[in-house]
């Protein structure tokens, strides 16, 4: 990865690395895992499995004329419970600290004691199904006042998803409709709370600043799996790719079956049948912070040597946070 690019630089691995960066930016999860969190002009991405009244509303927690909120309404005779309405399932990582929350308002002229709720349920399944591992409850009942609610919690050892679910309650026996507004919703991992720095912002390009001109593109596919390609050169000085699928554990990604890509030619002569994955060795990438780490490799491929090097972040990933 060449930051100070010159005409004499060997550009192929640099360009490939930057293309990989753009690709990983497009796929990488944002720091806020909630989709349509600001509810600018609709309530898309929010499921309504209970088929309860839920609609977009023009009131916005920041007073913006170009945004809005979700309005949920508790209808019928109340039993005093929370009428749950819309929800969203987001991916999560085990043993990680998360912050969830949002902004809640009770509009004027609602029954006394109307309260809006935000729940965060954790699950060991990846699709928010089955038994809940934990429940986290947030609520507010300020009338015509936006209240920011937030909670911070650690996921369990096997948690892989979090459900954000919204609803409204009114006193038992109340027959009048009761509504609540929800906006600016969020769910995000807090880096560095368990010594675990791996997260969405790590899906980017990394290089050794003292050896500018080669480096890796790494993309975290989920909480336990990562993909990488090392854009470098072979012993003869020819550009080569060394790629692998690896497993995530704490601050380390282990790529046990790295392979060298051979057989490619420039389009239109490209022939996918000629592409070969030649076993190369293993690679371990460990991070001390979200900005730096160490890459170590072991290889028996002809002409290559085992070794290690420090790596640093090439560029930040838009929309993610790295303290």
TrEMBL record:
Top-level taxon of the source organism: Bacteria
Signal peptide: 1-29
Keywords recorded for this protein, A-Z: Signal
Protein name: CBM-cenC domain-containing protein
Organism per entry: Elongatibacter sediminis
Lineage summary: Bacteria, Pseudomonadati, Pseudomonadota, Gammaproteobacteria, Chromatiales
């Amino acid at each position: 990865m060449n930051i100070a690019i010159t005409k004499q630089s060997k550009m192929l691995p640099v360009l490939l690395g930057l293309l990989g960066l753009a690709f990983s930016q497009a796929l990488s999860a944002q720091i806020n895992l909630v989709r349509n969190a600001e509810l600018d002009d609709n309530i898309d991405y929010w499921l309504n499995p209970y088929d309860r009244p839920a609609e977009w509303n023009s009131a916005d927690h920041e007073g913006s004329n170009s945004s809005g909120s979700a309005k949920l309404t508790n209808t019928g005779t109340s039993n005093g419970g929370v009428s749950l309405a819309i929800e969203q399932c987001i991916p999560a990582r085990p043993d990680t600290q998360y912050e969830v929350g949002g902004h809640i308002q009770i509009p004027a002229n609602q029954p006394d004691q109307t309260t809006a709720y935000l729940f965060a349920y954790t699950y060991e399944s990846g699709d928010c199904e089955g038994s809940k591992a934990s429940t986290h409850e947030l609520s507010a009942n300020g009338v015509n006042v936006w209240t920011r609610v937030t909670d911070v919690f650690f996921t369990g050892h096997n948690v892989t998803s979090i459900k954000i679910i919204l609803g409204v309650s009114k006193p038992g026996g109340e027959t009048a409709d009761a509504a609540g507004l929800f906006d600016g919703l969020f769910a995000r991992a807090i880096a560095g709370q368990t010594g675990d720095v791996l997260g969405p912002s790590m899906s980017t390009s990394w290089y050794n600043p003292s050896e500018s001109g080669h480096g890796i593109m790494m993309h975290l596919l989920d909480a336990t799996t990562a993909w990488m390609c090392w854009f470098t050169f072979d012993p003869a000085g020819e550009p080569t790719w060394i790629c692998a699928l690896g497993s995530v554990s704490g601050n380390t990604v282990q790529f046990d079956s790295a392979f060298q890509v051979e057989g490619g030619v420039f389009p239109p002569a490209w022939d996918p049948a000629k592409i070969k994955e030649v076993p190369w060795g293993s690679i371990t990438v460990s991070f001390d912070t979200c900005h730096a780490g160490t890459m170590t490799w072991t290889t028996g491929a002809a002409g290559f040597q085992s070794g290690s090097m420090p790596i640093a972040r090439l560029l930040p990933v838009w929309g993610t946070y790295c303290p």
